[in-house]
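User: Predict the structure for this protein chain, please.
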Amino acid sequence: MTPTGPQPDPSRAFSGHPAEMELPPPPPPQGPWLLAGVATNTAFAGPWGISYATNITPDEETGLGVYTEASFIAAMRAGRHLGAGRPILPPMPWAAYAHMTDEDLKSVFAYLKTLPPIRNAVPEASLALPPGT
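Assistant: Here is the predicted structure, written as structure tokens:
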């Protein structure tokens, strides 16, 4: 945060929600609004709970470093981590990428692999559970 408000930090590009940024509880939904987001555009709250922008740099421990081209394509098609894990949550618009060609997704993956790896362990999502679970 700067005196003029939030400013992007280019050194953290694509590294997701800053691990050290603790957030207060989100405001309750009001009227027709169902979503709330932080000024950094890296955390969102909605009916699913609270989710955070994921680190998509090639860091081996906290980013996409363990993904292969095939697992990246599977994740974008299925909306699940590594193509078969937990659901990919907002703010990642995976459904917008799901119908891209394999060649386009391979190009996106190749680009992401060129980024400098940034170690940033994004918080786990806090999912809203239905009553009684």
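The mean pLDDT is 87.
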